[in-house]
Amino acid sequence: MDVQLFVPCFIDQLYPQTAFNMIKVLEKLGCNVHYNTNQTCCGQPAFNAGFWDDARDVCNKFLTDFPGTDYIVSPGASCTGFVKNYYPRLFDNSSLHNEVKDTGKRMFEFSAFLTGILKIEDVGAELRGKATYHDSCAALRELHIKSGPRRLLNHVKGLELVEMSDVETCCGFGGTFAVKFETISVAMADQKVVHASNTGADYIISTDMSCLMHLDGVIKSKGLAIQTMHIADVLANGW
Known about the structure:
Layout: E1 2-5, H1 9-14, H2 16-28, E2 32-34, H3 44-48, H4 52-65, E3 71-74, H5 77-85, H6 87-90, H7 97-106, E4 107-109, H8 110-117, E5 126-133, H9 137-142, H10 147-154, E6 157-162, H11 177-180, H12 182-198, E7 203-206, H13 209-222, E8 227-230, H14 231-235
Parallel strand pairs: 1-2, 1-3, 3-4, 5-6, 5-7, 7-8
């Protein structure tokens, strides 16, 4: 299967190893992974800031960069949710309406692609310790991803998965929300870290590095031992 890779700006600039680990897993599972070096942003930052015309230009480029019929796989639920749910708003009643609809159907968050398209839950990964899973708002509310990542993690050899309290509560990042409302944002992250720590987990795992970066800031400020890991980094571990 040929797969197109979309790497969010966040991961490209700050956590590139997560993208490489996603490629490692996909190739192990028999996918031919292609990366279009012309790709840039999905357009979400401009859209969320209210600059819809500017966002539309960036989104139009995304459509140009990912033509054809291949699946588009991304290690970010936030960008994936934006393409699937908000591109139709930007291009409603336009000549690109059908192309947008088709692109949305081909776009998948990494874990959803493994469980929903490849129908695979055990990739042969190994990670010793206890982990708790954080549902990002984009994954849970925009893409309705809930059980898939947990099924993947339950097949990781040596990993014990435990649920934290109020697991569906936002971590407080929310993109520019963390900048505009820093005090509230940090308090929400602190609450999430407390709930995760109370499980005795060694790791907080999620589909979104933006959430994990936000949580990791609180973890480091409090001097805690718990670590954050993207699910792609977990699934690429141990082989």
